[in-house]
Specification:
Blueprint lengths: L3 E5 L6 H14 L4 E6 L9 E3 L5 E3 L1 E3 L5 H6 L7 E4 L7 H14 L2 E6 L10 H9 L2 E4 L13 E5 L5 E2 L13 E4 L1 H5 L8 H7 L2
Parallel strand pairs: 1-7, 1-8, 2-5, 2-6, 6-7
Antiparallel strand pairs: 3-4, 9-10, 9-11
Helix pairs in contact: 3-4
């Protein structure tokens, strides 16, 4: 039976790498799979899901005005699974489209993305995925500055100073967004005095 999955994590937890692995496994078994990514994500080149580990896989792009079903029905073969990266950027209408695809088309959908932005507000896509997904899980990673679990993303300006206000955009490399625990989100570097972490500070 098809199911609707939402896996969330902070930045640099391996969400994109997980998509690449799952897509590879489906294709190795000869099963069609549709990979999608937000048009806002250009880090690995447009039209790809890209991982910091150095891997990438081709992907169809979606934007806010995009109809997910239009992309699905253009596929030469009906996919057994749809994998969506940067799912926090989905609209409520797109999440409801995915619900219909799971329930009416019998296609498993796996969404991967951030839960909250760097100011700790839920994204529209994540909020509705938390409501409608059958299965919700978390990919865990460690805080950049200490040994606690990272539960938030901290955003930095060009000078390396933390930002606590601004536009809700969470696309960037390690030089702009870092996974952190709640304590280090409020006061970066307070938990670490080591030279190793001081070096990390100078990004």
């Amino acid at each position: 039976m098809a199911k609707f999955f939402f896996t969330y994590a902070t930045m640099a937890a391996g969400k994109s790498f997980e998509i690449i692995k799952v897509a590879f496994n489906y294709r190795e078994q000869g099963k069609p799979v549709l990979v999608m990514n937000s048009s806002l994500d250009t880090r690995g080149g447009r039209g790809f899901v890209w991982s910091r580990a150095g891997f990438k896989t081709p992907a169809q792009l979606y934007g806010k005005e995009c109809k997910i079903k239009d992309i699905l029905y253009k596929e030469a073969q009906k996919p057994q699974c749809i994998l969506i990266d940067e799912a926090q950027f989905l609209t409520k209408e797109q999440v409801l489209e995915l619900v219909d695809i799971v329930d009416e088309e019998g296609i498993t959908v796996m969404c991967f993305g951030l839960k909250n932005d760097s100011f700790n507000n839920l994204f529209e896509g994540s909020k509705n995925l938390l409501i409608f997904a059958d299965n919700i899980s978390e990919l865990k990673t460690e805080c950049w500055f200490c040994n606690k679990k990272a539960v938030m993303t901290l955003r930095f300006d060009e000078d390396g100073s933390p930002l606590y206000t601004g536009e809700q955009i969470e696309i960037g490399g390690n030089e702009r967004f870092l996974p952190v625990c709640r304590v280090c989100h409020k006061n970066p570097w307070s938990m670490s005095e080591s030279s190793n972490n001081e070096e990390k500070r100078s990004f």
